[in-house]
Amino acid sequence: MALTGLEIYKQLPKKNCGECGTPTCLAFAMALASGKGSLDACPYVTDEARENLDSASAPPIKAIKFGNGSILGDETVLFRHDKTFYHPTTLLIEISDALSDEEIQAKLDEINGLEFDRVGLHYSIDGVAILEASGDPDRFAKVVAKVAAGTERSLLLLSENVDALKAALPSVAARKPLIGSATEANYESVVNLAKEHSVPVIIKAEGMEALNTLVENAQKLGYKEFVLDPGSRNPSQTLANLTHLRRLAIKKKYRPFGYPVIAFTAKADPLAEIAEASVYVSKYASAVVLKASAKAHILPLMTLRQNLYTDPQKPIQVEPILHTVGDVNENSPVYITTNFSLTYYSVEGEVEASKIPSYILPIDTDGTSVLTAYAAGKYEPEKIADALAKSGVAEKVNHRNLIIPGYVAVISGKLQEVSGWKVIVGPRDSSGIISFTRAM
Fold it and tell me: For residue 58, how far is the Cα from the chain centroid?
């Protein structure tokens, strides 16, 4: 269990030097106990004390890295509004080694095509889970090698057959795949195999008590690069398990459950499967393995994930530079908006639909909408005029007409005075841009 602040304080040097960034050792101990400090900040802590305090200074959920930049865990809160979530749920598409080579290649091509651009961000599917369903270790090894050669994405080698894992892992060990699963029957062999190749391993047991026992036994083997699988494939039970594991790790700092958790979808229908995966992404799977791979199915899931894993205190923003829509020329109109992504892309979409090549200049409002920015004093005429001058748009057009949102018509006079441009009050909402351009 986690140590209290006073227990930590007893093992600190008690110099009260302030070099750690806090005024006293007691304050530093309290920060460590609450998960808000790092033991590395103290330059005088002894090796013995460091070893004893490892559990107190470690994050409540261990960070597990594998594959091509995939990071699981390292979360510190139950709810994103408390702070933020840091590492978006890793999404992996399953490929069975029971498929034919042609079917595997087709599935792999589909997975490699899962690339999306949304609100100025690019994201793609994170990895491929190769499932050993053939019962043939040589076939599994062959499919793992084929998938590894066909994608740069992170790999999960999924089998409870130790011989299959031993056959497949060496050829891809350098890519640091996640392997599993280690169960009560095979955990010593599988954990030792993972330890030998320095790769993380899934610890799988049916139910919380069995998982707790298995994790403690696996830790005794001298390895702790674990991802937990509580076993259930029933959505409601899986949700309950994920929630209990997260609460025990965060609230109780219960170390045997202080590891990231993986979930597997069970629904056969793609739409039902995506709905199931959405539940796991929301609460609290660090990784989800699913079978659906069509773009139309995956995009909504990735959109949900993106929304959950943005910083709630920092809205998604676009770069506040001059943007173009279409094949602009010296007669193209110039629109002013804010750099809040939802606002900007709403404007851009309507400008594009108007079929009139245009310039759009989003003002840096710290990612707030037009009215919010105006109310906060971030959408003032002087700031807009300064951004307009720095953008260089005056050299790109042969007119001095500027279109501003209708909601801030009140600034038009002052903006015209300080910028030297003729200010045209546009529609209040972006949905009015098409009709507005027709009347220009």
Answer: 21
Q: Are 25 and 12 in contact (CB under 8 A)?
A: yes
Q: Residue 170: helix, strand or coil by DSSP?
A: helix
Assess contact for 76 and 59: CB atoms under 8 A: yes
pTM for this model (two decimals) = 0.74
Q: Beta strands 201-204 and 226-229: pairing type?
A: parallel
Write the DSSP string, 94-129. Answer: EEETTS-HHHHHHHHHHHHT-EEEETTEEEE--EEE
Host H or E run for residue 242: helix 235-250
Phi-psi region of 326 (alpha: psi -120 to 50; beta: other; left: phi over 0): left
Contact in structure between 124 and 160 (CB atoms under 8 Å): no
Is the backbone peptide bond immediately before 374 cis, with ω within 30 degrees of 0? no
Distance CA(41)–CA(172), nearest Å, equals 37
One digit per residue, the tens of pLDDT, for the chain of length 440 reads 457 788 888 889 999 998 888 889 999 888 887 767 778 888 898 888 887 776 555 678 999 999 999 999 988 888 877 778 889 999 999 999 999 999 999 999 999 999 888 766 788 899 999 999 999 999 999 999 999 999 999 999 999 999 999 999 999 999 999 999 999 999 999 999 999 999 999 999 999 999 999 999 999 999 999 999 999 999 999 999 999 999 999 988 888 999 999 999 999 999 999 999 999 999 999 999 999 999 999 999 998 998 888 877 777 888 899 999 999 999 999 999 999 988 999 999 999 999 999 999 999 999 899 999 999 999 999 999 999 999 999 999 999 999 999 999 999 999 999 999 999 999 999 999 999 998 87
Using DSSP, state whether 287 is helix, strand or coil: strand
d(C-alpha 191, C-alpha 38), whole Å:
29
Q: Which helix (H) or strand (E) holds 422?
A: strand 422-425
Fill in the amino acid letter for 201: V
- Pairing label, strands 70-72, 64-66: antiparallel
